[in-house]
Specification:
The radius of gyration is 36 Å and the shape is elongated. It has a seven-stranded mixed sheet with strand order 2-1-3-7-6-5-4, sandwiched between helices. Strand 6 (98-105) and strand 7 (109-114) form a beta hairpin. It is built from ten helices and seven strands. Helix 6 packs antiparallel against helix 7, helix 6 packs parallel to helix 8 and helix 7 (178-208) packs antiparallel against helix 8 (221-284). It has helices at 20-29, 43-53, 57-63, 119-130, 139-152, 155-174, 178-208, 221-284, 299-320, 348-360, and strands at residues 3-8, 14-16, 33-39, 72-75, 80-87, 98-105, 109-114. The protein has a domain at 1-137: 2-Layer Sandwich (Beta Polymerase, domain 2), CATH 3.30.460.20. It is an alpha+beta fold.
């Protein structure tokens, strides 16, 4: 349904799905609490904002279209206009997509608008239908419920990004491939998109929790401060993923460089061994008439022995220079990070020993 309406009158009864005239009557009564949720940009639905509520045209223009506006808050004569952002779960993408929601908060009404379906609003509507709690304490508390559900729905995405970051780090170390680099860049772009909307959004809720707006009562300030704390946590987690991807990118480049160095090392060993052999073979492969060694009875075997000595000598020299590490001692075990329990203050053994000493006294 493009327009979803909820109205709580002075009797506390919730009326839903009221028509256009009912919306106008409820708004003009200036009593109870009216919530109108508009999905999409149908002209007939958008006209409710201008014809019934009389919102400023600039604010209405910010609601139209699929373009993303930055989070902001504007105060008008009898309402507050807020743009906030969440994660768009209606599209399938390897990169996190954000969605925009607009809130008009007045003394007795809340109008929410969004272009795409918002899962968090369904949860708020479900709570309203079950017990009506979000509609019982005023427009500012209802706005908090909507914003809090939208922000909390970002955390599952952050958790998913952390899991993906774990996989990327393991792959960057053990099996770096071109696909690994692509996944690193995709996750970095996701963190950048979240950062671009979360940082200004944090300032919005900071302002909402500081008694700056008359529409926000003192009783609801602590709730908006709670949303602000959630945004701080989300931003910290998002920044942590971003830093991990920077480290994973460095690890990936180092792993690729090490793999190339290993390949070059092997080629260098082969070249160091076979270049002298190629020299000997080239010398004795010449067809000059007066080469004394060509007439020796044991010349062929002597050259083969010389080649074998060259192979052994070059290999031994490379082994001494640590170019070849076969047969050398390697570190096969690294002690895990573990603190001796007896060195910890409050350890059970120390407590038991102290108790035994006190019993002896």
């Amino acid at each position: 349904m493009p327009v979803n309406t909820q109205y709580t009158g002075t009797d506390g009864v919730i009326h839903k799905d009221i028509d256009r005239e009912g919306i106008k009557t409820s708004f003009q009564s200036e009593s109870g609490l009216l919530w109108v949720d508009i999905e999409g940009d149908a002209p007939g639905d958008i006209s409710i904002m201008s014809d019934i509520f009389g919102f400023h045209q600039l604010a209405i223009d910010d609601c139209l279209g699929e373009h993303i506006n930055p989070p902001k808050i504007d105060e008008f004569e009898n309402y507050i206009f807020v743009i906030i952002h969440g994660v768009n779960y209606t599209v399938e993408s390897d990169i996190v997509e954000t969605s925009q929601m607009e809130l008009f908060i007045g003394p007795h009404f809340v109008v929410s608008h969004h272009t795409f379906p918002v899962l968090s609003l369904r949860e708020v509507l479900r709570i309203v239908e079950e017990n009506g709690r979000p509609m019982k304490r005023g427009a500012d508390f209802l706005a908090h419920e909507i914003a809090d559900a939208l922000i909390d729905n970002i955390l599952p995405t952050i958790d998913m990004m952390i899991d993906v970051a774990d996989d990327i780090e393991d792959e960057a170390i053990h099996n770096p491939q071109k696909r690994t680099l692509e996944e690193i860049l995709k996750l970095k772009r996701s963190t950048m998109r979240l950062h671009r909307v979360m940082t200004p959004q944090r300032e919005i809720f900071n302002r909402l929790s500081r008694s700056e707006f008359a529409m926000i009562t003192d009783d609801s300030l602590i709730y908006f401060r709670d949303v602000y704390d959630h945004l701080v946590r989300i931003e910290d987690l998002n920044q942590g993923v971003r830093d991990r991807m920077d480290n994973a990118l460095s690890t990936y480049l180092s792993s690729v460089a090490n793999r190339q160095n290993e390949t070059m090392r092997i080629l260098s060993i082969v070249a160091a061994i076979f270049l002298p052999l190629s020299l000997l073979a080239g010398i004795y492969g010449m067809n000059f008439e007066y080469m004394p060694e060509l007439s020796w009875h044991w010349g062929y075997y002597a050259v083969l022995g010389l080649m074998a000595m060259v192979i052994i000598g070059v290999t031994w020299w490379l082994w001494l220079r640590n170019v070849i590490s076969v047969g050398k001692r390697r570190i096969t075990f690294i002690r895990p990070l573990k603190v001796e329990p007896r060195k910890l203050l409050g350890h059970i053994d120390r407590l038991a020993r102290d108790n035994m000493d006190s019993w002896k006294l």
